[in-house]
Amino acid sequence: MLRQALPQITRRVLRQPITATIQPYRTISTSRYSSTDTETISTNSRVGKPDIPLRAGNIPTVTSDENKTSIAWPDGRATTFDNYFLFDHCRCSKCFHGQTKQRLKTLSEIPDDIHPIAVEVDKTGVHLTWSTSDAHKSSFPLEFLRRSAYDPPLASYRDDKESRILWNSKISQSPPTIRYDEIMNTEKNGQTSGRAILRLLNRVHDFGFCFVQDVPATGEQTKELIEKVAPIRNTHYGGFWQFTADLSHGDLAYSNEGLPAHTDTTYFSDPAGLQIFHMLSHPSPPGTGGTTLLVDGFYTASLLSTLYPTSYSLLSRLIVPAHASGTEGTMLRPPLSQPALRHDEKGQLIQLRWNNEDRGVLGQGWTPDEVKGWYQAARRYDELNRSEDAEYWVQLQPGTMLVIDNWRVMHGRSAFTGSRTMCGAYVGADDWLSRRAALTKQYEIRKKSILDDDWSLGW
C-alpha cells in the first residue's frame, strides 16, 4: 500500500514546505489530510486569516482601559494586548539598552495597575503615555503590534524556516555545492569572505546539507576551513577529529560496519547542530564500499504526517531516552529526554532526533496502547527513511567536505573494507545559526521593514 501511494504523495509534499502543526496530547492539526488513520484532522494550520500587509494611510483605531489596549485594524480584524505586556516591551532608552539590546527594567518595577492615560496613533505606530509618576511614553510600530499579537494571533508572516526545501533521492541530479576557494578567498580588508560563508550556511539551512568541493585533503586545512565557518564544538570525541575504523571510541561510527540513516548525539541535551565530514583517504583497490547515505528527515516526516497522522503525532509527543555508554569513562544520558520530532511554538518541525543504535529503554509512563503505537509509528517512519525514494547515496572522495544539518538530515554509510581515514567536527546549532543571522544582517540586501533591529529581536 505504501509503495503504491508514495509517488503521488511525494509529488505533493515536494511542492510545499513542511507546516504540520503538532499539539501534544490533543488532536493533530495539519494542512494535509489522509484517510489512512481514523482521527479527526483540522485543516487550519494557523489561527486567523492570511495576513494583509499594512499600507500607508491604513491607520488602526486604538482604545484603552485600565486593563487592556485594543486595536481595530483597517482590514476588519482586531486584537487586544494586556497593558502590562505593552509596558514590558517598551524600547525607549530608559527601558532598553540600545547597544546591548537588553531590558533595563525588572518586572517588579512595573506597577500592577499600569495603564495608558493618553493614546495617539499615526502611520508610524501607536504612542502611549502611561500612568506613571513621570508620565512615561512608549511608541510601538504597527508591524510589531501585528506580529506580536496573541489575543488573537494575527500575523501569518513568512517564517525563516519556510524557506527550507524538502528533497528526495532526485537531489543527486543537482546537490547544493560551493567551492573551497570561494570561502577561503579574502576581501580587500583582509577578512574572510563572509558572503561565501553565508551562501554555504544558507544552503545548509535550505537543504539541510551542502558539499564543499576542492578542499585540500589534509586534516589541518579541513580544520582551518571549518573554523572559518563557525567554532568547533568540543565533545567526548574531542574537538576536530581524525580517525580510522579502529573502535578507538565505543561507537559503531569507529568501525567498518554499515550504518543506517541516523542523526548524531541524540544522547546530548543539545545535539550537535552541524556534522562535518571529509574523507581524506580510502585507496581502492583494495578498499571497497563506504558509500555515504543522506536522507532528508523533514521530507520523510512530511510523508509520515500525510500518510499516518496518528503516527506522526506519537513520534512528536512520546519522549525517547538515548544514551552513549560504550566508551570507558563516558556515561551520557540527557536528564530530560525528548521526542523524535520536535516543534517550535508555531508547530513547525525544527528538530529530528533519530538514532536506533543509541535508543534507550522505552515506555516509562506510557500506556500499553502508546507503547504499541510508538513501535508502529517508528516502523512506519523507518520504512519511509529506507525507501528508494528517500535515500541519496553518494561516494565521497578526498577533496569533498560534507556539511550536514544534524537536526534535519540523517546520514549513514555502507560497510567498507580497506583503510579509510575520515576527519571532521561538530558545530553547535546556536553557533552556526548565529553566524548565519549575523552574516545575513551584514551582507544581504532585503526589503526594508519598518521594524528596526530593536523591534525585530526575540523572534
Describe the structure.
The protein has 459 residues and is an alpha+beta fold. 24% of the residues lie in helices and 21% in strands. The protein folds into two domains: 300 residues, Double-stranded beta-helix; 97 residues, NE0471 N-terminal domain-like (2-Layer Sandwich). About 8% of the residues have low confidence.
Distinct helical segment count: 11
CATH superfamily of the largest domain: Clavaminate synthase-like
The pLDDT mean sits at 84
Q: Beta-sheet strand percentage? A: 15-25%
The 3D shape can be described as globular
Low-confidence stretches: 17-52
* Helicity range: 10-25%
> What's the main sheet like?
6 strands, mixed
Q: What fold name stands as the CATH topology of the largest domain?
A: Double-stranded beta-helix
**CATH architecture of the largest domain, please?**
4-Layer Sandwich
